[in-house]
Design brief:
about 400 residues, alpha/beta
Length: about 400
């Protein structure tokens, strides 16, 4: 197995562009790739451009009629079929949409293949993590669900147990839906409570289909306003114990940066430093429970200068085995590029000034009057007994 990580990157993924007024601005990808280079991280990884996902691969998750609808909207955006979620405010149709969406999916599938075959121990596709797309429809800025496709490809290659951990501020509903009745896939999503945020799913009672898959879906619905200590407490109160029981052969993680306190579309209050701490934890959990096999994806994140490039550059560094120290000064050349592209002043360091982030372990006891602890306990009570664990 190669000791080097793979960074999946094809500049053409920046063509995933819903238009100038849409929050999903591809400049976030451009600036992340540029910061990875400015920090010297691209010398520590193998930069690989995978091929576009073909129709047979797309159909591992997506219905044939939906793929055909995306292709039709891609050729003629004005004819987009809204019954498939295309041509909506969230998912406007644009020329070439099928090809670039399939290309992003191809990077995640390629990452999964490389890790499964031992060509790389870790692989990162920060352009991926488009976790809302459903088997039969677009949703939440997502056309094809690359995360689900990567997992489906792992199963096709022979994996018997794949764990998916999603720390985006929004519920990973599309991945959960794709494997709702499949006990080979454990999906864990930590997200803002569905009462206050799209897609209004991800309640702790959503635990998988009745039968063998019951307990294979896990949802931690966090109160709006949850900050670093609560977010890390919830993660560590749920994820490690479940992974230890499940014993995944591969860990797939989704690192949407929209949990950040500056994100304009959500209501958590997490810092870059806490995001980095969870990335480090996922890396450690992959080595502890999945023989190091780790596929790490991007996701949401709409503070496109201050947050996203720094968060995902940390992710690349962790995967590469060359962690970027939080106090690292960001190269002036990158800050100038960010200003030239966005007219926004860029941050000066790779930290929000909160490192190291501390939190209280669940084992030290819980407060029944605390809303965060109530959320964690609801999840543990709903799922842990189904997996033979004490709540």
């Amino acid at each position: 197995m190669s000791g080097r990580a793979q960074l999946m990157w094809d500049e053409a993924v920046t063509g995933y562009d819903f238009g100038p007024d849409h929050p999903m601005d591809p400049v976030r990808l451009v600036l992340t790739r540029s910061l990875v280079g400015a920090l010297g991280l691209d010398r520590e990884v193998d930069v690989v451009a995978a091929k576009r996902a073909g129709e047979s691969t797309l159909r591992l998750v997506h219905r044939e009629d939906y793929v055909e609808a995306v292709k039709a909207a891609s050729a003629d955006p004005a004819s987009a079929d809204g019954t498939y979620g295309l041509g909506t405010v969230d998912d406007p149709a644009f020329a070439g949409m099928h090809d670039v969406s399939a290309l992003i999916a191809g990077q995640s599938v390629g990452a999964a293949e490389a890790v499964w075959r031992g060509e790389a121990l870790h692989a990162v596709n920060f352009a991926g993590g488009l976790h809302h797309a459903m088997p039969g429809g677009a949703s939440g800025f997502c056309i094809y669900n690359d995360a689900a496709l990567a997992i489906a490809r792992l199963l096709e290659l022979g994996a018997e147990r794949v764990a998916y951990v999603d720390v985006d501020v929004h519920h990973g509903d599309g991945v959960q839906a794709a494997f709702w009745d499949d006990p080979r896939v454990l999906t864990i999503s930590l997200h803002e409570h569905p009462r206050t945020l799209f897609p209004q799913t991800g309640w702790p009672e959503e635990t998988g289909a009745d039968g063998p898959a019951e307990g294979a879906a896990v949802n931690v619905a966090l109160p709006a306003g949850t900050g670093d200590a609560g977010w890390l407490r919830a993660f560590h109160a749920v994820v490690p114990e479940l992974l230890a029981e499940f014993r995944p052969q591969v860990l797939v993680t989704q690192h949407g940066a929209d949990t950040h306190f500056e994100d304009p579309l959500a209501h958590l209050a997490v810092s870059l430093d806490a995001q980095r701490a969870v990335q480090v934890a996922c890396h450690e959990l992959a080595h502890e429970h999945a023989d190091g096999r780790w596929v790490a994806l991007g996701g949401g994140g709409y503070s496109v200068v201050d947050v996203v490039p720094r968060s995902w550059s940390h992710l690349v560094g962790i995967a590469a085995g060359h962690e970027v120290a939080p106090e690292t000064v960001i190269p002036e050349s990158w800050r100038q590029e960010a200003f030239a592209r966005t007219r926004q002043l860029a941050p000066t360091r790779m930290t929000d000034g909160r490192w190291p982030v501390s939190y209280k372990d669940w084992e030290s006891g819980y407060d029944p009057a605390d809303r965060l602890d109530q959320a964690v306990l609801a999840t543990r009570r709903a799922v842990f007994p189904l997996r033979g664990l004490l709540p």
